[in-house]
TrEMBL record:
Belongs to the metallo-beta-lactamase superfamily. Keywords: Hydrolase, Metal-binding, Zinc. Its cofactor is Zn(2+). Residues 38-272 form the Metallo-beta-lactamase domain. The keyword Oxidoreductase does not apply. This is Glyoxylase-like metal-dependent hydrolase (Beta-lactamase superfamily II). It comes from Pseudochrobactrum saccharolyticum. SUPFAM superfamilies: Metallo-hydrolase/oxidoreductase (SSF56281). It holds the Pfam family Lactamase_B. GO terms for molecular function: hydrolase activity; metal ion binding.
Amino acid sequence: MPAISETILDFTSFHVGYCSGPLAMTQRGAPWRIGRFPAGIAVLRHPVRGTILFDTGYGKLFGEATAAFPERIYRWLTPVTFDADDSLPKQLQKRGIAQPDLVFLSHLHADHVSGLFDLHAIPPVITSRQAIEKLTATRLATLKAGCPALIRDKLQSLNLQAVESLPCVSLATYGLEAFGNGYDLLGDQSALVVELPGHGFGQTGLFLPATTQGAIFLVADAIWSLEALRQNRLPPDMTLRRLGDRNAFLEIFAKLRAFHLANPQVRIMASHCMEAYPLNSHGERG
Ligand SMILES: [Zn+2]
């Protein structure tokens, strides 16, 4: 295994479907017009550990899981555009990327996990212990937590590995000491799991010190856009109230902003950020 920082991960990112909703729900002062929010994912290729996915976007299962009530409400709130031609396996294939060897899920919201079930074979999947524990919630509670029952059941049938079982590492070397300790995903500190609580249950992100596109911090839904972080614009109260833990969200937002100001060279990628995952008017990559 290469020593710390010797590994340069090959980095690719794209979106797997998108949803639509009022921009004003994600950022104070934003207009009420309907915006599009890509379901962004990342593919990391490691010389020894193979292909690793960071989240999986939308998939066929989302349609099935939200066909009946009460789950159908999810579709009403955030109408989804997902074309089977742009499914996760098809997009991987188009880019010449092999079947993944590992899937890392930032959190278990349907727009991050549905695509997993379109893969021809499901590789080992890793996510946080808190996210795994919340899978025992009732049908309504799991829906409220962003994971319709059918998707919850499919996730439960997998042997999910907890991030906390990975070796613990100090994040101070990377200027991330405010986030506590991290976990070493691939055994050589080329991908560090960072806890980003507040949005959903047990959300985590990945800090990648060295990739083919420079240093990258995949922050999942800890922020909706980089613009919001730059301008220090929080989501409105009605959105904050619906999050897993409002205070934790605010704390993480402030820490990310401080990190961004101190480390502008690190590319911060939020899963639904148009800067990270540009869409043109047809919803295709711009
Ligand atoms: Zn989410």
